[in-house]
Amino acid sequence: MKCFGFFKDNSKTNKEKAAPSPPKTPPRSTTSSSNQVSKSSSSLASPRGISDLYKEKENSLRVFPLSELRTATNNFHRLLKIGEGGFGSVYKGSIQPANGQGDPIIVAIKRLNKNGYQGHKQWHAEVQFLGVVNHPNLVKLLGYCSVDGERGIQRLLVYEFMPNKSLEDHLFGKALPSLPWKTRLQIMLGAAQGLAYLHEGLEVQVIYRDFKASNVLLDEDFKPKLSDFGLAREGPTGDRTHVSTAVVGTYGYAAPEYVESGRLNVKIDTWSFGVVLYEILTGRRSLDRNRPAEEQKLLDWVKKYPADGKRFGMIIDPPLRNQCPLDAARKIARLADSCLNKNPKDRPTMSQIIEGIREAIEDSEGQNPEASGSNLVDSNRPFNQTGVTRSPRRVTAHQLPRPTANVNGVS
Ligand SMILES: Nc1ncnc2c1ncn2[C@@H]1O[C@H](COP(=O)(O)OP(=O)(O)OP(=O)(O)O)[C@@H](O)[C@H]1O
Ligand SMILES: [Mg+2]
Known about the structure:
Layout: H1 10-15, H2 30-38, H3 50-57, E1 62-63, H4 66-72, E2 81-85, E3 88-95, E4 105-112, H5 116-132, E5 141-149, E6 152-160, H6 167-172, H7 181-200, E7 206-207, E8 216-218, E9 224-226, E10 233-234, E11 243-244, H8 256-261, E12 263-264, H9 267-282, H10 298-302, H11 326-339, H12 350-364, H13 369-372
Parallel strand pairs: 1-5
Antiparallel strand pairs: 2-3, 3-4, 4-6, 5-6, 7-10, 8-9, 11-12
Helix pairs in contact: 3-5, 7-9, 7-12, 9-11, 11-12
The protein binds adenosine-5'-triphosphate (ATP) and magnesium ion.
């Protein structure tokens, strides 16, 4: 599912120019600076921002010439295209190690669409955030390429290759076997740990802002890693409760208060996490235009089958019904409901969510999925990466109504 508009903040866009050719250190993030500019009273006391942290680590990223990435992908050959999202195409490629010695490294190379300033901004945010973070549940950025030529700008990102595609592909793609219940829980546990690190484990609080099944990539052991940091933002600092931004994200995953007000804090990720918990429980997309009207919006539909109700079992993904203990499923639904509290303050922290998922995993221990005859995934077998990952039911990018209370004009 693609993101909705990030072309929103005209006031900001008109005032700022895209950075020229790629500086070794990308220019100071608009995120941190704008937060400080718009609320400057406590800016002196602000902790270091993401761009400060990036400066310390930038040398760990490789800067690739475009020619090297052309070679790596056989000139971006269509047969090496493994995915396509709202911001560009992703190719499988092979690069030489930095020191020129050893075996070639398989990588994923994302080439951003040429959509000018916003594309650059997205790329820039991704370089900065992924250049700073370091966690087993976050995808590794190996390097980047940035060229401003006569034929326009080229922005590329080079990531470690994730051989088992995305959680979205496994939950909704027809070609892949159904994921077992415990694998789904383990994936959500790892994803929660990645988000907890962003929210609670860094010097800077990071709001991911685009948590969804397609951004949870799976390694050879089905361990999850979050990808796509183009929409990530620094969280509020000091005694501020939120950052004001233009509204970006993906339909079906965005927290309602954020869509209405543009006010951003970490609890918008918690909301999106709750949506994905219901996706793994039901095997249904958060938004599915191909279903009957009353079933298109997952959150509306599941409300008819409350976690403590008699009919709850009816929403469980059919392939899971013989392998997932009802108690554990109810626990996950209750956890999802808490993430989906209307008031962000009532939503749990990621640490609390981790605890909740661990309990559900414990409740599921001792269950023998093999006995149920359900479709198991051999976790040691990577799936062949053939063809382009592109869901037939993806919605095209749209623009949401502008936030009404975006007084700061910060995007
Ligand atoms: N590091 C990677 N390793 C392997 N495959 C990847 C990697 N990054 C992306 N992909 C593949 O490319 C697909 C598209 O990714 P991309 O992030 O561009 O789009 P998306 O997540 O579907 O949508 P959006 O643009 O809203 O993020 C992914 O679903 C995945 O299958
Ligand atoms: Mg993505």
